[in-house]
Amino acid sequence: MPGQAIKGATALCGLGMTELGRVFGRSASDLACQAVLSALDDAGLAKGELDGLLINSGISRGLDLRLAASLGLQRVNLLTQMNAWGSSAGQMVQYAALAVHHGLARHVACVFADTPLREGGRAGDAYAGRRPQMRGMASLYPVYGFGGPIPFYAMLAQRHMDRYGTTQEQLGAIAIQTRDWATRNPLAERREPLTRDSYAASPWVVEPFHVLDCCLVTNGAVCVIVTTAERARELRQPPAYLWGMGQAHQFEGGGASIDPAEQTPGTASAHTAFAMAGCAPADVTAAQLYDCYTYTVLKTLEDYGFCKLGEGGPFVESGALEPGGALPTNTGGGELSAYYMWGMTPISEAILQVRRQGGERQVARNDLVAVSGNGGMFNHHSTLLVSPHSS
What whole-number distance in Å separates Cα of residue 148 and Cα of residue 80? Predict the structure, then answer.
């Protein structure tokens, strides 16, 4: 199959994470430097061995190419800045893997850092005032209440409910099962148990989304380092081998109408990754799925083939995502309950699970972990398949 030559040829070898949550008084650049240096230490690499740097600045736009100089890197072979929103982290890992596999670099750091929270401010205000000004017909969106991504995702969730009978309780099951994992994660921001009643009692944001259907807002930074499998085996940590990867992007226009309730780029992205890995959804033993909203998880489960289209609701209601379930998902608490580092949230948890460093939340079977990233209004998608085994 096309792409199988790269299966297991590259690996994630270093993970660096700063303090996450309501972290104030530090710039995104400062946090990013700490995350990169921590990832180097985690891997057992000297700073001079780092010859690639891929940068993803969050909504605060606090990072740029000057990060290389801030780190004291005198010369690198690979350096660029990327932004495809929540799919960026997965894409950075993919480009880094291709670079080390083909000899463009030896060790590539992929770093995300963001500081949207302000001391004394509300989490809900973090993204306010950061949206581009809309002109022409597009200016009608805020007039009708479509300010930011939440109403758009809520509308898609409602369409799925109307079409397939998905219920509010099924969306709530995702939030509850994700929180169950977070209670086992000492790094999670929300560790108090969540019940069906407390979920239902939480304030509405935009129906059918309660506050607890929406992700956290977090300050912090995460870095992962990618190298070849051969080099990774000589380093400090157990390698997290990359078996498969894919990405896909989709937009309205050209006279064609795309219904994201039926088709998102996640389907094509996952297909590419599974073909490269030579495996199928049934081979996946755990999943770390981008969960900016509960509905995003439900739709990704369908897109990846873990359940059929329209059957995401009953699948999550069955308890499949919870500890001991058929498909342990977002085992660190995800973006809903742990921390929101865009696509680095699922990647960081996948690495910990593959290394068997999950502590109380460690899954029994970690042979193949699926990782998703989602950006825009289901416009951008990235997929990684990660394993502790090289083949």
Answer: 27
Token pair for 65: 């190419």
For 131, residues 6+ apart whose C-beta sits below 8 A from its C-beta are 147, 148
List the catalytic residue out of 199, 293, 295, 340: 340
- Angle formed by the axes of helices 265-277 and 294-303, to 10°? 50
59-105 confidence digits (pLDDT tens) = 999 999 999 999 999 999 999 999 999 999 999 999 999 999 999 99
Question: How is residue 253 annotated by DSSP?
Answer: B
Strands (E), the chain: 10-17, 52-57, 78-81, 108-114, 204-206, 209-210, 220-228, 240-249, 286-288, 369-375, 380-387
List 290, 293, 295, 339, catalytic entry? 290
| Rounded Cα–Cα distance for residues 310 and 313 (Å) | 7
Q: What is the pLDDT of residues 249-300, one digit of tens each?
A: 998 765 556 777 788 999 999 999 999 999 999 999 999 999 999 999 999 9
List C-alpha distances in Å: 5 to 10, 28, 68, 174, 277. 11, 37, 32, 36, 9
Q: Strand pairing partners for 66?
A: none
**Tens of pLDDT, residues 325-371:** 999 999 999 999 999 999 999 999 999 999 999 999 999 999 999 99
Helical (H) or strand (E) element with 163? helix 150-164
150-173: b (≥16 Cβ within 10 Å) or e? bbbbbbbbbbbbeebebebebbbb
Asked if 290 is an active-site residue, the reply is: yes
What is the SS3 assignment for 166?
Answer: coil
Structure token digits, residue 327: 């498909």
Q: pTM score, two decimals? A: 0.96
